[in-house]
Design goal:
The protein has about 70 residues and is of the alpha+beta class. Helices cover about 10% and strands about 20% of the residues. The longest helix has 8 residues, at about 60-65. The structure holds zinc ion.
Length: about 70
């Protein structure tokens, strides 16, 4: 079981969210990061190949950023 993390600007992808170590590697086949220290696995939603295909919901964006067409 791995964590799915929302990738944010400035986040350190190599850093284990479990123990904080950056001693990790990215599994290119499984598309997840694996910590060498505690064996914790994690991945980012932006690593999902469908990430760019998600329909943009303007109401959702409005709730996130407070911007919209009917401001
Ligand atoms: Zn770790």
């Amino acid at each position: 079981m791995s964590d799915i993390i929302h990738n944010e600007p400035g986040i350190l992808e190599e850093q284990c969210p479990n123990c904080g170590s950056i001693n990790s590697h990215f599994d290119d086949e499984g598309k997840f990061h694996l910590c060498h220290v505690c064996d914790h696995a994690w991945s980012f939603d932006s690593d999902d190949p469908d990430y760019d295909d998600v329909d943009v919901d303007e109401e959702y964006l409005y709730s996130l950023y407070g911007v919209g067409n009917n401001a």
